[in-house]
């Protein structure tokens, strides 16, 4: 019974060997549970790392945020004018992506289905709606339109870049070869730096904006020059 | 070509797999790594994470065995060192040897300094 419960928590891709190892190492139930509690978080994190393509995840996050931003722009532009409003627009996308990452990690690689990407996206936005029902952060119409546009973008992205578990495995090929690569990693770093500067700039008082922004730009420039981006 | 390098824990896992030969699976690798890392305790989860990472890098290959009764009818996942993994392990061993030689040289120099004083 306990083994079955523990088995549900372990991602199916590595359930067989992890459960077998835990059973072999531990005779008693208490030891089995203790060992499982110590081991399973690592197994889940490792599976998430294997199934998540950081570049695709970044694209998905961007699509979700832009969708909710566009919905807010059309339905209630006052939300876009405040920093708190901009932050609230990121929450549904964050929830959806969190569920999507978990759905990818818990996908069974032995069971291939062309419907899986669609179901994973549908599940993630179902969770967004459940959260919205219990704790509404945005108007219902905004969540509905933002989710609809996000679902469309995510499905297109998933058709172009299928989840790692659904991609054909290369014979003897390291798995990271299949992940997307940013041609110039410096572009990503520069974008992150600009975002950081803007974030710093928006949160300091007006009289300190000049010196703080100047210092932030100088620090980033020195970093980029010394690391040659 | 970009040079590959592995961390200390990855070296321990690769060494354990190399020494276990045909019997390298989760439990046996973990106990071997614990032996090598003494007195440090090593968690089974950390071994799994490292095995996955090394497999992704192409240093290891894995396959599932037939189910065995002592494991409740569950299969074992066996690991084998690939050529790339062997090369990386050899390179890190050469680096460790070089470091140790340097330490020995500095120690000798320090000893000679002390004796002169």
Tags for this entry?
heterodimer, A: 229 residues, mainly alpha, 10 helices, globular, B: 117 residues, two-stranded antiparallel ribbon, 4 helices, 2 strands, 62% helix
Walkthrough of the structure:
The complex is a heterodimer of chains A (229) and B (117). In chain A, 77% of the residues lie in helices and 0% in strands. With 229 residues, chain A is mainly alpha-helical. The longest helix of chain A has 23 residues, at 29-51. Helices cover 62% and strands 9% of the residues of chain B. Chain B has four helices and two strands; from the N terminus they run αααββα. The model of chain B has no long low-confidence stretch (mean pLDDT 86). With 117 residues, chain B is mainly alpha-helical. Chain B has a two-stranded antiparallel ribbon. The chains are: A mainly alpha (229), B mainly alpha (117). The interface between A and B is medium-sized, with 28 and 27 residues.
